[in-house]
């Protein structure tokens, strides 16, 4: 795990719930693995380009979409990437406090 990346408990729970959902839905690990690999690439990209994500209404908070349906909400604080929220956009959009 990259020490420059911190996950909030909520974001970590959301991420693992999404992976578990897709594992059960597809009866396979292939899609959850694809999500994880793509997320890892996006995290590295954000670390190299911290202002790449779309700004939110909350100062210092940005979001970046990937694989069409997923969104990572993050902030950069004291040189660390803090993942605040992980969202499958097919869920109820009103449930995401950062949308």
Salient structural properties:
99 residues, alpha+beta, YaeB-like fold, five-stranded mixed beta sheet, 2 helices
What this model shows, in words?
With 99 residues, this protein is of the alpha+beta class. The protein has one domain (5-89): RelE-like (YaeB-like fold), CATH 3.30.2310. Helices cover 37% and strands 28% of the residues. The protein contains 2 helices and 5 strands; from the N terminus they run E-H-H-E-E-E-E. It is globular. The mean pLDDT is 89.
Topology of this structure?
Blueprint: E1 5-7, H1 9-26, H2 30-48, E2 54-55, E3 61-66, E4 70-77, E5 80-88
Parallel strand pairs: 1-5
Antiparallel strand pairs: 2-3, 3-4, 4-5
Strand order, sheet with most strands: 1-5-4-3-2
Poorly predicted regions are none
Give the name of the CATH superfamily: RelE-like
Query: What kind of sheet is the major sheet?
Result: 5 strands, mixed
Count the E strands: 5
Q: In CATH terms, what is the fold-level topology?
A: YaeB-like fold
Mean pLDDT: 89
Strand fraction band?
Answer: 25-35%
The coarse overall form would be globular
Query: What's the structural domain tally?
Result: 1
Oligomer: single chain
Order of helices and strands: EHHEEEE
Number of H/I helices: 2
CATH architecture annotation = 2-Layer Sandwich
